[in-house]
Task: structure prediction
Amino acid sequence: MTAPSNSLDDLQSDIGNLHHLLEVLYDQSTEQEFERDGKRAALADQICALAMIARDLAERMNEAADACLSKALADSRTMKTGA
Result:
């Protein structure tokens, strides 16, 4: 593991990687057995739901990081041009 970075690009990349990992987890969790012995497996439903929530949250975090990076770049350009 590397030391934490203060780069928004690195943060967005890490969040993107987390999203991909959670997407695989969600995809795999939807392939599990949701019924056992003729009964619905509550734990399987919970795992699937939590994986979906985490995946979607990581996607929204990545979009928010992109918006922050875009704003920081725009603010930087504005300060450089003095506008």
Summary: The chain is about 75% helix and 5% strand. Residues 67 and 73 are 10 Å apart (CA to CA). Helices lie at 8-29, 42-81. The radius of gyration is 19 Å.
